[in-house]
Amino acid sequence: MLAGALALNVVVAQEEKLIEVKSANVLNVRYVGNQEVRELIGNVHIVQSSPGEVIKIWCDSASRYMETDKIELFGNVKLVRDNVTLISTEAVYFGNERRAEMTKGVRLIRGHSVLTSRFGEYFAQEKRAHFKGSVRVVDSTSSTLSDELTYFEEEEKSIAVGSVQVFNSEDNLTVFGDSLIYLEKQKYTIVPKNPKMMQVDTASSGLIDTLLVVSRVMEAYQDTLQRFIARGDVVMVRNDFAARCGEATYFLKRDRIVLGDQPDSGPPAKAVRPSDRVVRAGAGLAGQPVVWHEENQLTGDSIVITTKERKLRSVYVEGRAMAVSRADSVRRQRFDQLTAREITMYFYDGKIAQIDAERTATSLYYLVEEAEPNGVNRSSGDRIVMEFQDGKVDRIKIVGGVEGKYFPESMITRREPEYNLDGFKWIANRPRRQQLQIVNESYE
């Protein structure tokens, strides 16, 4: 080891940025043109000091161009600044700029996070790092893939661009998007364009169920509530239900999804007659939440979906609450209807067990006798409870202020829309799995 030569600790001061060779087994000097090049071989350790920071570099060998202060680093390259460590097989370090460039693959380690990519560039002065090519970030709970990623050290902010995927192994959940912004201090993530979410779950029976969510913007808060928020033209599909709304909040740890309205940016829908209230392609919805389960449709100002062990437990609707189901597969204008200020639909083993309508409840129920239509009952009360058996209405109970009226078959035939309850609409654009594009192809 050239202890004598290196004991001098060759120091060059440029603009108060000090580069010091701490160690090397061999020192050779050569010239490229008029520029002196110092070749350091074996156990190379270099330090650059400047006010308030120190950059430490290790490698197997290095070529230092004295005039430009460019250092080419080869073999087991490691650069450390504070709690950031960069590792590569080769790199170029520009001392004047305090910038490192790694063109043959790079690994960044910071705390519990590890980033790898094909190309990396680190700007020590700006405390910024930029990576390109198969970028992957892995921490204790998630992994993120993208084409490019920029990390701002002081702000603790990351911006990922191009084919972004974030996989959360704890919840078996993946978010896709064109880009992503992550604020570490706030534990906040936003996917501002083309976000999609997919959560795969395997039930105790062994069946696989998948929740798919598509919206205009998607956000995640990794605080104590652990929630995802989807905003704008939200579409949601799972094996046992589907939904559309203006805004959805998914509380991961509470097994709860809250659906809400959002002002529609488009032109107001034209007024329609009651007989025309079959809504297609979202017309007239303006983001109002709607949930479908089998042949049942629920609408209202807000809807709360509660699950237990990934199975539907209840759907609660508040404000202009309405439940609709098709009463007759042949007579397509006939719909059983229920309205109230609040409606709760309860499930048992994946099937409807009970519907509870409270506060100004009104029902419209079509009757069938010996397989023949037999008119319709319209009833109202303070509370209406419908109990189900094998997915069919078994009993209807009305409590408080009971009123009812029967309309015979001869009166309602071909005039069914005239008897619909106020606010009735049958929404025909129920989302299907094959309509949702996940990773450039329809999800089957």
Give a short summary of the structure.
With 444 residues, the chain is mainly beta. The chain has helices at 3-7, 409-412, and strands at residues 11-14, 17-23, 26-32, 35-50, 53-65, 70-81, 84-94, 99-102, 106-110, 113-117, 119-123, 128-138, 142-152, 157-168, 173-183, 188-191, 196-202, 208-214, 217-221, 227-237, 242-251, 256-260, 278-279, 290-293, 296-299, 302-308, 311-326, 335-348, 351-369, 372-389, 392-399, 403-407, 426-427, 437-438, 441-442.
Describe this structure in words.
With 444 residues, the chain is mainly β. It folds into two domains: 1-104, Lipopolysaccharide (LPS) transport protein A like domain (lipopolysaccharide transport protein A fold, Sandwich); 225-444, lipopolysaccharide transport protein A fold, CATH 2.60.450.10. 2% of the residues lie in helices and 64% in strands. The radius of gyration is 32 Å and the shape is rod-shaped. Residues 1-15, 264-276 and 279-284 have low confidence and may be disordered.
